């Protein structure tokens, strides 16, 4: 969750206009939990997205004190 939030923050920051975003930290975080994504082999994008969304869903549900909207 933290790696995904970091990527989103960098993507939407005003300093990143026209620059690429480093995805290595996000890829590393995913590889720790899903060894099938280790390396540079092509993976099914639907499988990756499903894994990413499921992980975010599980992390969000573990929050004990939810902030006010």
TrEMBL record:
Entry-linked Gene3D superfamilies: Cysteine proteinases
Gene Ontology molecular function, alphabetical: cysteine-type deubiquitinase activity
GO terms under biological process: protein deubiquitination
Superkingdom assignment: Eukaryota
Ranges where the Peptidase C19 ubiquitin carboxyl-terminal hydrolase domain occurs: 2-62
UniProt protein name: Peptidase C19 ubiquitin carboxyl-terminal hydrolase domain-containing protein
């Amino acid at each position: 969750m933290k790696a995904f939030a970091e990527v989103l923050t960098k993507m939407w920051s005003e300093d990143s206009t026209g620059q690429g975003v480093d995805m290595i930290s996000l890829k590393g975080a995913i590889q720790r939990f899903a060894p099938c994504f280790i390396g540079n082999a092509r993976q099914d994008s639907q499988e990756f997205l499903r894994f990413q969304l499921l992980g975010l869903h599980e992390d969000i549900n573990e929050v004990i004190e939810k902030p006010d909207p």
